[in-house]
């Protein structure tokens, strides 16, 4: 028994150490593998993981993208982006002024940098940086003590230094030093981790190559492709298209807070005026949003694109560029021809608006101005399309359609009412009448021959007055409000609502005498803009709907291929601002009177439209006015002039285009007159129908070609 127990016990003693040995062996192998792995990681990835440990901050930045383009209604490019070679600087966090200055000195040896943007303050700041000891001497010990005592701050001391630097001191910089300063100025004006344009205009191929070769020794400096706005039609609609701020300007100071609140950077380029400004949020695009991860020293160790950028959306304008350019040439022709006449010294501008009366789409918005250089005396014609919404004039008899319709509405007259046209003799005033006595006339004839007396009698009735020759005339002053409110329903004296900023309303006279009410009724008291005239005649043309004019037709999505247009993101639909509170029969009656003006013998525009292959309805106007142009200060007394206007639409029975022509200060009274307004109107309508015919012919030819191609394909099949 003892022997058996001894044998079993012996076996147990020998089995336990063997299992432990295996366990220890396995532990040894695992630890060896772990040590080898740690050693490998330390050697191969030690630096990378050290940086991972030292990461301290994630910074999100936005990189700008090119702006959207602009096209005319027929998809001809009008505003594009021209690529530019550019040199940039991206300041890392914690970069010192000394480090930036050192890089600026190196870069100045590789590129030429204009110094015209360097200010006096820039020079003084630079002088302090370059002359620290001399700068310190600009501040007294007593002033430094005040800082310790809390009476002054370090900023106050710096301000004192700036004030005490003399012109002799800061004007000693050489051309090379100023170039360094100009570059340093760009470096310091940008945000940390956000690329700042150093130079993007006139970067030569040599400069671009030299900088590319030395990027390793230029911390923060980079090269890229930037853009600038280019215009396919340099002198056409330039003022309406608007401007974009440069990379040096950045955000306009007057709207800085507005843009910063919308996540813009201070050095972003934005639309400064008109279409570029009005549609900024559309044209700007979606910036590339990047998350930069930096280490403790501010170096970027990783960048991640959070949101890919997308260039701005494109605008398709309502403008017909072919019609626009043809109209501008017509204006220029007659402006130059009439400037040669001896009685037109004040004539310097003319305007034309053409629009679809059914939709409010502006087909042309043309304006030209004759200017003479004050130094050279050389004359030139410049774009003044903006004048269609930013300047206003007494428009004359073109408003008589609104006067007649207001008379119907107020019960002052009714269709067919007859007045005897002879000069009105109101006690204490000069006789007021038409350019000749017409005898008994009704409303349609009054429009046809442009009778002033008919409108005077209508206004007197609106004002509750009674005309008795050689007696005083008394009217209710509320008649001014009645007539102006009615005119506003057509767009006269009210903002048209066009999708452009800074639209002018016009001026309202302040006197409320009976004579001024009569002047108001014939368009010789209040002032209106050419765009208001176009809206007014469109309202009559389409049967009483005041349409909101607009210059943008569509907003298109951007596409990668810059040669193509993307899908429609938004279509600008027609907007009715109001409907005339008048009977359809009344509006149709005035339309009939407008047709008599142009299509019936004896009408004031029949000579210019009577023989056309198309029909037109319209109204002419001549207003006695006073010159209030750029040279008015030269004259001690007000200078009397005549404004010429005409409005109309075509075809007369089914309008598809309306127009307004305005020629301010066309000639002076008691001198030879001219018909520049009617000649321009006649030729722009000829051009409209000429283009329409050519396009119809072209479309037919293209359709025929397509049909033939498809037919041949079918035959082969």
Keywords:
single chain; 717 residues; alpha+beta; Penicillin-binding protein 2a (Domain 2); Arc Repressor Mutant, subunit A; 3 domains; 7-stranded mixed sheet; 6-stranded antiparallel sheet; 24 helices; 20 strands; elongated; disordered N terminus
Strand content: 15-25%
User: Which residue ranges are poorly predicted, with pLDDT under 50 across at least 5 consecutive positions?
Assistant: 1-14
How many separate domains make up the residues?
3
**Which CATH top level class of the largest domain fits?**
Alpha Beta
**Morphology:** elongated
Number of helices: 24
User: What percent of residues adopt helix (DSSP H or I)?
Assistant: 40-55%
Your description of this structure?
It contains 24 helices and 20 strands. By secondary structure, it is of the alpha+beta class. It folds into 3 domains: 55-68 and 82-95 and 192-230 and 260-316, Penicillin-binding protein 2a (Domain 2), CATH 3.90.1310.10; 96-188, Orthogonal Bundle (Arc Repressor Mutant, subunit A); 324-696, DD-peptidase/beta-lactamase superfamily (Beta-lactamase, 3-Layer(aba) Sandwich), CATH 3.40.710.10. Strands 2, 3, 4, 5, 8, 15 and 16 form a 7-stranded mixed beta sheet that branches. It has a 6-stranded antiparallel beta sheet with strand order 11-10-9-20-19-18. A 3-stranded antiparallel beta sheet has the order 1-6-7, with no helix packed on it. Strand 6 (288-294) and strand 7 (300-307) form a beta hairpin. Helix 2 (97-108) crosses helix 8 (175-189) and helix 16 (400-410) runs antiparallel to helix 22. The relative contact order is 0.10. Mean pLDDT is 87; it is low at 1-14.
């Amino acid at each position: 028994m003892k022997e058996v127990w001894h044998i079993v016990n012996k076996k147990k003693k020998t089995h336990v150490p063997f299992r432990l040995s295996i366990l220890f062996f396995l532990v040894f192998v695992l630890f060896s593998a772990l040590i080898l792995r740690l050693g490998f990681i330390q050697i191969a990835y030690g630096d990378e993981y050290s940086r991972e440990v030292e990461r301290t901050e994630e910074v999100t930045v936005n990189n700008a993208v090119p702006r959207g383009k602009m096209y005319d209604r027929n998809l001809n490019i009008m505003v594009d982006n021209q690529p530019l070679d550019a040199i940039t600087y991206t300041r890392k966090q914690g970069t010192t002024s000394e480090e930036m200055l050192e890089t600026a000195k190196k870069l100045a040896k590789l590129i030429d940098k204009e110094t015209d943007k360097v200010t006096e303050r820039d020079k003084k700041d630079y002088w302090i940086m370059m002359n620290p000891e001399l700068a310190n001497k600009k501040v007294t010990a007593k002033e430094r003590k005040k800082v310790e005592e809390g009476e002054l701050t370090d900023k106050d001391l710096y301000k004192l230094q700036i004030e005490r630097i003399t012109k002799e001191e800061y004007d000693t910089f050489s051309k090379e030093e100023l170039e360094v300063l100009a570059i340093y100025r760009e470096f310091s004006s940008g945000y940390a981790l956000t690329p700042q344009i150093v130079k993007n205009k006139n970067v030569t191929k040599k400069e671009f190559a030299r900088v590319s070769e030395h990027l390793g020794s230029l911390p923060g400096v980079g090269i890229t492709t930037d853009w600038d706005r280019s215009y396919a039609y340099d002198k056409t609609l330039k003022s309406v298209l608007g401007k974009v701020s440069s990379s040096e300007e950045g955000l306009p100071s007057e709207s800085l807070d507005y843009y910063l609140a919308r996540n813009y950077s201070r050095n972003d380029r934005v639309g400064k005026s008109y279409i570029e400004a009005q549609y900024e949020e559309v044209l700007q695009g979606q910036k590339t949003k990047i998350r930069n991860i930096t280490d403790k020293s501010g170096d970027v160790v990783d960048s991640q694109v959070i949101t890919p950028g997308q260039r701005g959306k494109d605008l398709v304008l309502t403008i017909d560029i072919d019609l626009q350019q043809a109209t501008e040439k017509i204006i220029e022709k007659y402006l130059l021809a009439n400037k040669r006449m001896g009685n037109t010294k004040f004539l310097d501008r003319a305007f034309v608006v053409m629009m679809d009366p059914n939709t409010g789409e502006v087909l042309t918005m043309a304006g030209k101005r004759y200017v003479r250089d004050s130094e050279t005396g050389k004359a030139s014609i410049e774009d003044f399309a903006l004048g269609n919404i930013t300047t206003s004039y007494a428009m004359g008899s073109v408003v008589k359609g609104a006067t007649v319709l207001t008379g119907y509405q107020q019960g002052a007259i009714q269709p067919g009412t007859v007045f005897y046209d002879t000069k009105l003799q109101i006690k204490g005033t000069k006789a007021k009448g038409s350019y000749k006595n017409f005898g008994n006339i009704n409303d349609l004839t009054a429009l046809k021959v442009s009778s002033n007396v008919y409108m005077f009698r209508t206004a007197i009735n609106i004002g509750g007055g009674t005309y008795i020759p050689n007696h005083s005339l008394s009217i209710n002053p509320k008649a001014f409000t009645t007539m102006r409110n009615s005119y506003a329903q057509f767009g006269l004296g009210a903002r048209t609502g066009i999708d452009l900023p800074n639209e002018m309303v016009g001026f309202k006279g302040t006197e409320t005498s009976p004579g001024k009410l009569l002047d108001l009724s014939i368009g010789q008291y209040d002032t209106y803009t050419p765009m208001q005239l176009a809206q007014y005649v469109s309202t009559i043309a389409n049967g009483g709907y005041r349409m909101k004019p607009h210059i943008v037709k569509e907003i298109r999505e951007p596409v990668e291929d810059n040669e193509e247009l993307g899908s429609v993101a938004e279509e600008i639909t027609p907007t009715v601002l109001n409907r005339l509170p008048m009977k359809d029969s009344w509006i149709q009656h005035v339309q009939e009177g407008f047709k008599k003006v142009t299509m019936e013998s004896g009408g004031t525009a029949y000579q210019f439209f009577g023989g056309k292959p198309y029909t037109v309805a319209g109204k002419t106007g001549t207003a006695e006015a006073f010159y209030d142009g750029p040279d008015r200060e030269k004259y001690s007394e007000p200078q009397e002039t005549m404004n010429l206007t005409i409005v109309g639409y075509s075809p007369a029975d089914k309008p598809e285009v309306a127009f307004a022509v305005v020629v301010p200060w066309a000639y002076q009274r008691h001198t030879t007159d001219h018909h520049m307004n009617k000649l321009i109107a006649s030729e722009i309508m000829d051009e409209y129908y000429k283009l329409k015919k050519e396009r119809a012919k072209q479309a037919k030819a293209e359709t025929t070609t397509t049909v033939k191609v498809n037919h041949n394909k079918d035959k082969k099949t």
